[in-house]
Amino acid sequence: MTKNVRVRFAPSPTGPLHIGGVRTALFNYLFAKKHNGTFVLRIEDTDQNRYVEGAEQYIIDALNWCGMPFDEGPNKNEKFGPYRQSERKHLYKQYADGLIASGNAYYAFDTSENLDFHRKDHEAKGKTFIYNWHNRLKLSNSLSLSAEETQTKLDAGDDFVIRFKSPQDETLHLKDIIRGDIKIDTNILDDKVLFKSDGMPTYHLANIVDDHLMEITHVIRGEEWLPSLALHYQLYKAFGWEAPEFAHLPLILKPTGKGKLSKRDGDKLGFPVFPLKWTDPKTKDVSRGYKEDGYFADAMVNFLAFLGWNPGTEQEIFSLEELIKAFDLNKVNKSGARFDPDKTKWFNHHYMQEQNNDALAEAFKNSHQKLADIDVNYIAMVVDLIKERATFVSDFWDLSHFFFTAPTSYDEKASKKAFKEGTKDILEQIASIAKNIEDFTVENLQTEIKGWITSNEIGFGKVMMPLRLALVGALQGPDVFDIMYMIGKEETVKRVQKATEAL
């Protein structure tokens, strides 16, 4: 790739960042890093009515947590700043005026009542009202009015918008990296508003002007922007600018595979759809986040990468560095990607095994009051024994409580299976053996107890099942000898003796 790659992620600060937005940011980030390019964050806040306090910082925090900080953006390397559209609004009017001067746009003075009348009139005739070549000369705009009439309205301060003049009887040939060649008949396009009566540009104008001024080379965005591609190409042509390359990512679908994934799907099926927890500043409603639900950022990034992209190999586990190396926009699918909550857990389970035991022990200790006085080094040893069965840190207590507290009861079903005639004598023998082992190691425990079982020709199950039940209270947990070593000789003997009394 000859030119310096520059991509942008341009969210609106209207609330928390949906994982669909995170996926868009990720694909932009991977593409930029693959080509030694620049990842730009631009905040598109032209719609001030929808602006939500704290949303911009949430977006930045989410990107940082995912391990993909922006290279350029608000308050960081502001080479082409400012990076908030609300702080750039002085720029856009001159470009809108330039389009009017070149004949590619026009002033429209239609009132909302007048437009509503035309819509209803068309509906009554079974037609759809489109403001374009078909009817613009019948409406109130600088194409249907004389230059004097237009200037009079402008001088009088009449409300106006600026609309793009979409051409008639042309076929546009557009290119998309993911979707290939696209043909559009301009007769079906409407004359989009570029500049609003409140003095603010619409997304379409601001987006094109900013991408050009910020020297964006590739626009990688969601499928929902595909219908805008024709207008955006025409705007570049009207300005005489070179258009960036476009790539429209597939939708993230509901777990059923039907329809776009929404916040309600997460609420209904019990999984988060936001990277971080979000508290609505007005309603105080709290939305769950992947971070707070116990997901590792690496796991989230890994599963998001596979929503629409496939490396073409059997490999599923990728570090961020490996994703950067393997990523290719030509391997992104056109069709929607089904979101699978179970697959996200599968990824998290894998990344659990990669985590440092000391860090997990700290997280476990901080999450559970009963561990407040327990040595973190001991907790780390416990974590090492149980994490292969865990998906989240929140699973740890159920998997390990018996390392910290003795059982107060025994699983009823397991008791019927493990406690038989003669079990009491067996456990008394085990208690005696354990008591007499001076160097209480896993190896010595295995040697002594297994040796006793073999020499007495007892089935292993007859010994190991009731022994596990005595130590744990249920038929669960890691290797019995690891449990005995961890809780120590005194506690082991005490638990075995207590089980014999219960029998």
TrEMBL record:
Domain (Glutamyl/glutaminyl-tRNA synthetase class Ib catalytic) ranges: 4-346
Entry keywords, A to Z: Aminoacyl-tRNA synthetase, ATP-binding, Cytoplasm, Ligase, Nucleotide-binding, Protein biosynthesis
EC number: 6.1.1.17
Molecular function GO terms recorded: ligase activity
Name of the top EC class for this enzyme: ligase
Domain Aminoacyl-tRNA synthetase class I anticodon-binding residues, every copy: 372-499
Motif ('KMSKS' region): 260-264
Any one Pfam family match given in the protein's UniProt record, by short name: Anticodon_2
Reactions catalysed according to its record: tRNA(Glu) + L-glutamate + ATP = L-glutamyl-tRNA(Glu) + AMP + diphosphate
Residues given in the record as ATP binding sites: 263
Top-level taxon of origin: Bacteria
Subcellular location: Cytoplasm
Motif mapping: 'HIGH' region: 11-21
SUPFAM superfamilies, per database record: An anticodon-binding domain of class I aminoacyl-tRNA synthetases (SSF48163), Nucleotidylyl transferase (SSF52374)
Entry function: Catalyzes the attachment of glutamate to tRNA(Glu) in a two-step reaction: glutamate is first activated by ATP to form Glu-AMP and then transferred to the acceptor end of tRNA(Glu).
Family the UniProt entry places it in: Belongs to the class-I aminoacyl-tRNA synthetase family. Glutamate--tRNA ligase type 1 subfamily.
Record PANTHER family: GLUTAMATE--TRNA LIGASE, GLUTAMATE--TRNA LIGASE, MITOCHONDRIAL-RELATED
Self-association and partners: Monomer.
Entry protein name: Glutamate--tRNA ligase
Organism: Algibacter aquimarinus
